[in-house]
């Protein structure tokens, strides 16, 4: 179900409950008793949770600003960000660092209100079970983002009040304990099947699998039980979804939403649009000249994919290497980017763009779209199972999962391609290297990049991102648009936002993450 304007407006009133400055004022919005007197009211509050998730400061835009530009895998057309976040040099008062933190807590606090309101209401358990499951899932999903991005955060699981609004930082271990608890409740309460893209019990399984894979870090199965726990969750999802026939169809508005491989997606519509088309389409890349081109893959991301599978149909579906630039008179000029254009310091052509979220109709006057953002899809689950199985038992039974993804890729062309070929004959170490690269080839730009390249520790991140980038021959770091990365372990986390340290008396400068 897509967010409706009336639901968003209704929840603006509910959101007023969350501000500490209004805690003691007489309310001018519907009372808690009224909101939770029937299922319609509870669903209005639930829609408010989703509006928080889809907000510009969270998944609507700034989550991509933060995690893509901070991943080490993207460049930007926004000059101001070339020397800070796109150079792996964010600072604690940077707008993206601040906004995502606030957007996450806005969503968490709305989930807290919903959970508490339902638990205090007289609504039946059967009627509210799935609603509660969605709230627990969204809270778990959001805290999982927070703990990976910032390392620590206040653990707020009750409605905001004057007594708890300034909670101190909780450790990552405490936060992960809550994430796992919430995800297990979601798994218990959620429905098994939906048609609206919202989470099901299988989305909770996938969330838990990702949590356990993160906790496993770079350890082998002999050193940690987390790989087995990850397998136990991921295998529950196997076979419950299916890959669409053509990879390319995932990136067209007409065929992208609610597909057979969608496990959890964030909905928007032209009235309440998500901003991915605006962020990823080249500046002046539509007739309305309303797009920004803020996020575009680094050259090495294209090179690595082409070197692995030169004839992979996913390359054309992932990288936009030709586009039309419009001037104020509406005249369009064809631009050809890297790899055809190899000169440096050109905003329009020195880097490819991400085709997945590039506006498909260049004559559009705006960036508004009915295209949702798919946060979890089945091909990711298959790659996860391949990685997990390889860690537990070696590659023998892991090929089956990744080869499903590769087979779909080969057949996503007008005529079947010879590449990428099925995997066979790899050692466990070779498989580990290959599957980590495969996440980039299959999922680039889909919200997982920052996490996947850091999940195996700093040494891995340094080798695969920092060193790979700095040693890409075509770059000229004397030119303003090519940015050299510093070898600095602080890039494994973002700083705790300056506003939180300033405003919260229970957090001090000494609590800041190392290196900031």
TrEMBL record:
InterPro entries the record matches: SusD-like_N, SusD_RagB_dom, TPR-like_helical_dom_sf
GO cellular component, one term: cell outer membrane
SUPFAM superfamilies: TPR-like
Transmembrane segments: none
Main localization of the protein described in the UniProt heading: membrane
Pfam family, one: SusD-like_3
Subcellular location: Cell outer membrane
Family: Belongs to the SusD family.
UniProt protein name: RagB/SusD family nutrient uptake outer membrane protein
